[in-house]
Amino acid sequence: MSIAILGAGAIGQLLAQQLANGGCQPEFIVRPDKSLPPQQLFTLETTTGSYSRPFSCLSTEAAAAEFSHLSLVIVTLKAYQVVAALSALLPKLSSHCQLLLLHNGLGPHRQIIPLLAGRGLSLGSTSQGALRLGERQIRHTGSGITQFGHIAGPTMPDELKLLLLRAIPHSEWCDDIMLALWGKLAVNAAINPLTAIDNIPNGALADAHYQQHIQAVIAELVEVAQCEGLTLENEALLQRVNQVIKLTANNYSSMQQDVLYHRPTEIDAINGYLLQLAQQHDIELPVNQALVTQVKRL
């Protein structure tokens, strides 16, 4: 089974190394300006040592014939990059190629589904940690669960599922992936904007002042989820958020890093996604609206 990873960032490189360890040799699909010579070395640092491995890179502008062998494309781009990148790539993929979106937040899948043309789409998330040290060098900074599941089109073949499950540590297939992703959405919606706005590490959110704000964010999220036909437990979500705050106390969220380095954020796919749904259901989310406004101002 041939796998390509669209997006050679930290998580994309980590997954490539793990797939290679599992016996698969994935390729990277990169922008033309990021194209690299064939068999370029990528380096992974772990607690047990440093390992370098060659991976091939395909340009997004390559001819369709260059992509015809692919069975699966794993998309590890930022949420706001997904639709444009896949809109250009999808016509070049074979009709049997599967897609797996792995990014923070939700929303891009709704725009991708009408473009599938018979291809299968799965969604997922990972709480693994990876730090990019250079263009082709990362450090594995933390283990975590990786979840994925079917959302539209033909379901992923069993051999592809098994390949992913065997290669990616602590991974699992979820029959109800949306429920799992809403749990991750709650964590991101509570932690990311607050840490970005106040330029603080995750652990600072344990303070009572932030806890009140987090409770309000989660309460609004649960209300929107109910309108979407999902039953989420408020207390269970709060416990999960605070567990992540404790376990990642010294870490800085991706949104904090994006704001710090003046990069676009994924706010539209996190708290902004809640606002999109709220508008459809004619409800207001004043706390989440305020967070989106403040992050966009930054």
UniProtKB/TrEMBL annotation:
<dbReference type="InterPro" id="IPR008927">
    <property type="entry name" value="6-PGluconate_DH-like_C_sf"/>
</dbReference>
<dbReference type="Pfam" id="PF08546">
    <property type="entry name" value="ApbA_C"/>
</dbReference>
<comment type="pathway">
    <text>Cofactor biosynthesis; (R)-pantothenate biosynthesis; (R)-pantoate from 3-methyl-2-oxobutanoate: step 2/2.</text>
</comment>
<dbReference type="InterPro" id="IPR013332">
    <property type="entry name" value="KPR_N"/>
</dbReference>
<keyword id="KW-0521">NADP</keyword>
<dbReference type="InterPro" id="IPR003710">
    <property type="entry name" value="ApbA"/>
</dbReference>
<dbReference type="Pfam" id="PF02558">
    <property type="entry name" value="ApbA"/>
</dbReference>
<dbReference type="InterPro" id="IPR013328">
    <property type="entry name" value="6PGD_dom2"/>
</dbReference>
<dbReference type="InterPro" id="IPR036291">
    <property type="entry name" value="NAD(P)-bd_dom_sf"/>
</dbReference>
<feature type="domain" description="Ketopantoate reductase N-terminal">
    <location>
        <begin position="3"/>
        <end position="152"/>
    </location>
</feature>
<dbReference type="InterPro" id="IPR050838">
    <property type="entry name" value="Ketopantoate_reductase"/>
</dbReference>
<keyword id="KW-0560">Oxidoreductase</keyword>
<comment type="function">
    <text>Catalyzes the NADPH-dependent reduction of ketopantoate into pantoic acid.</text>
</comment>
<protein>
    <recommendedName>
        <fullName>2-dehydropantoate 2-reductase</fullName>
        <ecNumber>1.1.1.169</ecNumber>
    </recommendedName>
</protein>
<comment type="similarity">
    <text>Belongs to the ketopantoate reductase family.</text>
</comment>
<feature type="domain" description="Ketopantoate reductase C-terminal">
    <location>
        <begin position="176"/>
        <end position="297"/>
    </location>
</feature>
<dbReference type="InterPro" id="IPR013752">
    <property type="entry name" value="KPA_reductase"/>
</dbReference>
<keyword id="KW-0566">Pantothenate biosynthesis</keyword>
